[in-house]
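At this stage, I wrote out one protein's amino acid sequence and its backbone structure tokens, and that material follows here:
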Amino acid sequence: MGVVQVTVEVCNPGNPDRRWEGLFLVDTGSIDCMVPGNRLRSIGIEPRGKRTHELEDGTELALDVGVAQIEFMGECIGATVIFGKDDVEPLLGLTALESVGIEVDTQNKKLKRLPAVRLK
């Protein structure tokens, strides 16, 4: 498919003035968003638990998760965020995309807005 990236702002839902902006890889194979853990902590977001995630190779890994406000392409949603290693490339997962009615145009390697958010 090729690489699709988008600028994303991650905000603390309890204090939206505390935010971090980064270039995220769009990953339609990932359900949740992954953000460097140090960036989440720097804006006051702390882990609220652990969730087991399956990696591409089938390995299962328990990772810290929290809740953040995610803003991209003029849209804003609440999302589960995975606390990645401090040097991890940020990932924008499928749930965030679908929640605002955006999909990947694989032919043009761009994100495109759907005419409506799918409820089915």
Observations:
- The longest strand covers residues 15-27.
